[in-house]
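Example record

One chain of 511 residues, shown exactly as stored in the release files.
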Amino acid sequence: MPEHDAARLDDLEEGKPHGVELDGVKVVLVRDGDAVHALAGTCPHRGVPLKNGIVHEGSLVCPAHRARFALATGALEAPPACEALARYPVRVVDGAVLVTVESDTPQHPLPDFADRGEDARSFVIVGSGAAGWRAAETLRREGFGGTITVVSDEDRGPLDRVELSKSYLKGEETPDTPVTRKAEDLDRVGVTWKRDHARAIDTEAAELVLANSGERVRYDRLLVATGSDARHLGVSGEGLTGIHSLRTLADADALRADLDTCRARGTCRIAIVGGGFIGLEAATVLGKREGVDVTVILNEDLPLARVFGNAVARRLLSEHEEAGVRFVRSAKVTGFTGDSRVAHVCLESGEKVDADLVLVSVGAAPRTSWLPFARDDDGGITVDETLAVPGFGNVFLAGDIARLPTPWGKVRIEHWRFAQETGELAARNMLGQGRSYDSTPFFWTMQQAKGSYAYTGHATSWDTVDGAPDGKSFALRYVEDGKVHALLSLGFQDDVTLMERRMAGRGPVEA
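Predicted structure tokens for this chain:
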């Protein structure tokens, strides 16, 4: 086994990651007193160099998306990563840090999963997205040896859904299907798949009723993680060819195919209805395609002002306009016209926006109408701190559909990482661990016009915003009643990581 002279101990700063390359393998070194930890040097989620990460309370945190790994073992501690980090043997001899690396050792091994055993219990999960699949893996990571049945109407998956509005739309070359697990790895988890969707729950019999087959699946514990559907406008002409939403892999495939056909005929005019995260990401990606003109139609005056405030919203608007995206602001869509295919988006003002292709991106509706539980006004369902449905202790909810108690109050958050976290939490509580949410909401967007924005915490209102969205990088703190409820940054990744760790389990912190 090859041993490499990787560094001098005196050259390593205590608790600060240091990147090296040994025999073609990227490795990150972290000094811990007179000892050194050596781990795989890139994050398994997106290959981000961990030499730029932060060491915090025995964990190594990815600088980009906040995946967290145990420094001593490389074990996966928090999403969005789905794999662990390889750990390499280290010796310190006369001040030399000697690291043994085998180039054929997997840098990002799968977590250890329990095998099916003699446990007679049957756990059923509805949904194979970020929350559902994370729950299935967590059950096995936690040692569950019973039956796990996953019910999903996706023909491929589990999906990395955030990529549908990013790399999957770029089109320079055909990207791989954005899944979090390759087919050869799925069997390692040991689940029974049912390609169907749920129609009803018989809570008295503890059975899930499937829609297509009519089968009734018995459960000891049930997790519902069905996510959301794309909202529709409910206006005339919405059924015309060329009008798309973007929520599923099938949606993305249809949009890509239609875009290629449209571009082959000449310049393709795309109208995007809605200026939320999906709409603006799609505008950035599609606007870079040759032969594409993009118009974003906003119901409000500025994009995302209710989320980030007017100053950030003005910057986002300016960034996209500089990139060639046209905006129609404070406009209400009343319908679509065309023969069999869309040709115009009709506005209440009487204006018509020419369009060869339309993407409607006006939010998401929780898939909860089939559930026999009380729903909130927005379609979500309030659960207790363990994510169990009140009065139905063997039924749990996770992901977009669940409104749960957190240090920020009872919230329902449509973030991919939050869905993964609640999937993990639900799985542990299905096993009786009695845990509550002790992390910090976090999301990122990699496809805005000027780069990667990152947001941690949760703020629906604020008294002041500390900082200004100026320059190539900034950090803004959203303050209410003397406490920081959230932080938004462009660059300044360490600020976000440290704030995310400060807030974890505590919520808003003193300003």
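Notes: DSSP finds nine helices and 38 strands in the chain.
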